[in-house]
Specification:
Blueprint lengths: L4 E2 L4 E6 L5 E7 L9 H11 L15 E3 L3 E2 L2 E2 L4 E6 L21 H8 L15 H17 L3 E9 L2 E2 L18 H17 L5 E8 L13 H10 L4 E6 L10 H4 L3 E2 L2 E2 L7 E2 L2 E2 L4 E7 L9 E4 L5 E4 L14 H16 L4 H7 L3
Antiparallel strand pairs: 1-2, 2-3, 3-7, 4-7, 5-6, 8-9, 8-10, 10-16, 11-16, 12-13, 14-15, 17-18
Helix pairs in contact: 1-3, 3-7, 5-7
């Protein structure tokens, strides 16, 4: 099945299914000499894994195994293979949907395209596929950190509850990765109410990258913001992407939206760190709009494989919202996009480093 690889110079290929033996990623193009340990990767995987009070009760340790590409704590420049073995899959929970199509899922479209689908938890279409992305993103993070680039994400909104303040330390104090303590409490109450009703809810994730040099990206068809949007949209639950002001820019006048140009940068950052498809050197700001989880306990209308109308109530262990577990996934896709562009030549920078 094509379409499982991402990147050009720092390339990842994710593999595995939700209820198969394991999932993971193969990275090609990682520079040699980058300090890397399983613990570096595990920190991000622990933020994504299920099993919390507000997430799916599926109990997966999601312990990463580094199978290649690292020797004596350093990357060697050869392909890095990362594996996470499934320990708590219960495929019997999906026996019923082997013949039914779940609303909001890729069951029907996958079968229409390939003539076959792995109905155990959705196979490759499951959100569990993102294990490989997060693991690979953690490696990209180590590379970017060596260049002074920092990427951080948080929950901006859950349903209609939106954070009003940004306290980076607060993100680590609550299970929703929300930078606003008051909003985090309101989000938690809202999430539990939705869970009790048998429904689900969406939200918004914001990712910010600081320390990026000016000039990342290419004009026209390979713009930095175009690649970031593509990367974020490749996450199954994401239905919209914004850069900087995003859709709000439609309400502003040019005098309000333009960022004043100063000798050492810009006076504001409505552009979200990207102009003309190239990074400005300002903080890069990306937001992802996340749809509600489609697996809900409420009755829904669907059809079986023979086209007969039926009512379905999706069983099994599911999140009520992709938030907060999708936050490290969005971070990973920004990390993977940025590291790929950082490996591209920057003519002005390279001319300064290697003058004739």
């Amino acid at each position: 099945m094509p379409g499982n690889s991402f990147g050009r110079l720092f390339t990842i290929t994710t593999w595995g299914e939700s209820h198969g033996p394991a999932l993971g990623a193969v990275i090609d193009g990682c520079p040699p000499g980058v300090p890397l340990s399983p613990e570096d990767i595990q920190r991000d995987l622990d933020r994504r894994k299920p099993g919390g009070r507000l997430t799916s009760p599926r109990r997966e340790p999601d312990r990463v195994e580094v199978l290649s590409g690292v020797f004596e704590g350093m990357t060697t420049g050869t392909p890095i293979c990362l594996a996470v073995f499934n320990r708590d899959a219960r495929s019997r929970d999906y026996d019923e949907i082997a013949r039914l199509y779940r609303p909001g899922h890729a069951d029907r479209t996958t079968e229409q395209k390939y003539g076959i689908r792995d109905w155990r938890g959705g196979g490759r279409s499951s959100a569990r596929e993102t294990v490989g992305r997060v693991a690979a993103g953690a490696v990209a993070r180590k590379v970017l950190e060596s260049w002074g680039v920092r990427v951080r994400g948080f929950t901006l909104a859950l349903g209609a509850v939106r954070c009003q303040t940004i306290d980076w330390e607060e993100i680590h104090r609550n299970p929703l990765y929300c930078p606003d303590a008051e909003a985090a409490l309101a989000m938690e109450r809202h999430l539990l109410e939705i869970k009790e009703s048998g429904d689900s809810v969406g939200g918004i994730v914001e990712v910010r990258a600081s320390g990026c040099p000016a000039g990342l990206g290419e004009p026209v068809f390979d713009k930095l913001d175009a690649r970031l949007a593509s990367a974020i949209m490749s996450i199954g639950a994401v239905k919209g992407v914004e850069i900087g002001e995003g859709v709000r820019a439609a309400e502003l006048r040019g005098s309000e939206n333009n960022d004043p140009v100063l000798p050492d940068g810009y006076g504001s950052n409505h552009a979200g760190g990207v102009l003309g498809g190239l990074s400005t050197g300002m903080e890069i700001v990306v937001r992802a709009t996340v749809k509600p989880i489609p697996s809900i306990a409420r009755p829904q209308q669907t059809v079986d494989r023979n086209g007969h109308p039926v009512t379905i109530e999706v069983r099994g262990r599911h999140d009520v919202s992709a938030i907060p577990r999708i936050v490290p996934v969005c971070e990973a896709m920004v990390l993977l996009t940025l590291v790929d562009f950082m490996l591209h030549p920057l003519p002005a920078r390279d001319a300064q480093l290697n003058p004739r």
